[in-house]
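yo

u said u wanted the structure for the complex thing, so here. seqs first:
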Amino acid sequence: MSPISEAKLSRFDFPEGFVFGAATAAYQIEGSGFGGAGASHWDTFAATPNNVVRAEDGRVACDHYHRWPADLDLLQAAHMDAYRFSTSWARIMPDGRKINPEGLDFYDRLVDGMLERGLKPFQTLYHWEMPSALADLGGWTNRDVAEWFADYAEATTRRLGDRVAAIATINEPWCVAWLSHFMGIHAPGHRDIRAAARAMHHVLLAHGRAVQRLRGMGQANLGIVLNFDHTDPASQSPEDLAAADRWDGIFNRWFIEGITRKTYPEAVLAGLSSHMPQGWEKDMDLIGQKLDWLGVNYYTRHTVAAAKDTPWPAIRDVPGNLPKTQMGWEIYPQGLEGFLVRMARDYVGDLPLYVTENGMANADVVEDGAVSDRIREDYLFAHLAATKRAIDQGAQVKGFFYWSLLDNYEWAEGYDKRFGLVHVDFQTQKRTPKSSYHALARALARND
Ligand code: IFM
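structre next:
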């Protein structure tokens, strides 16, 4: 864990103009199923037994749809410069195609609310609410998803594009494709290598098509948010080294190499190529659209070993011995430094990088009206220090967003896992800023 002296870092230790913020996502906080919104594949996934802890869903979540002014006030009061939020496809296009004006009006007010408070709006277009009507047509396994997504991107940007500071197409394509179509852990819950191969490709195709469309409209500052998992081999045996390389390829190289090199890693194609959509190679130019920035989400590391006598990718997790968060994720800040430096060195050079998510879940409780989460303070400042070390090594990191502003709906984990700087009582919706919120606010104060 970090030496506590790292808690002394402040905004003045970072380059002038460095952006500090917090991140959320629509389904995890807004509440859903009203305001003209359509159903998404998360509603049906959650309604199916054994997918989500206690079958909890996002119907109420943090009721942010009605409480957003107070939530934005919390960001402002912590001296943040920006807010990373997502727009919900199912709210804006309930059937996946036709616009719901009420949905766009909501985001219009939200973006204006950010600007009134001096917060730069960092928008994400897809943070996982595939409209059910499109999921019925195969969702990410259907090649047409690229055009559906570009239509949604265009409609949303026509309304908000004049005021948002940055747009990310997709949040965490690895989760959209692999976690959801191979591992079955997120919606739509498939465990099928053919579905996974298609989703792995189509999610990037949709990204490329949306960037092309928005660029054509003159929209600036377009990026994508990728998640990364530091991977260590369980031993130096050739089998474990190869397993670690496969995991690194699936998680950490597939998406960035698709975009920046217009190729996919050989170690992954070895398992996926026979399941890929026909002619996928011809899509790589569209996928490799120029980016204006890259978002890096980072949480943890994994140690992996070869799993003998199992089908490709034949990998198994080996429990690590570092301190863990409430998610059971090892705390390893060096991994963040490593990925920021690696992205700059191997893939994007001087392209602006943002840490678009980093944070930890903890079983926080309110005592005498306050929450003491010193462990999160340590986690946060250790990762800020890792970010600073990457900057010192030349990575062009321009901002850091803590995940998350609020305790919220942690997908398959329901409401148990608390990632927020602000505690939410899900019965009363009372917000209680935690000690980590106050520590970050002190670090970000400008003293003027
Ligand atoms: O809550 C999620 C978020 O939606 C995407 N990135 C990881 C977070 C923690 O699991």
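Residues 25, 28, 172, 297, 357, 403, 410, 419 surround 5-hydroxymethyl-3,4-dihydroxypiperidine (CB under 6 Å). The mean pLDDT is 97.
cya
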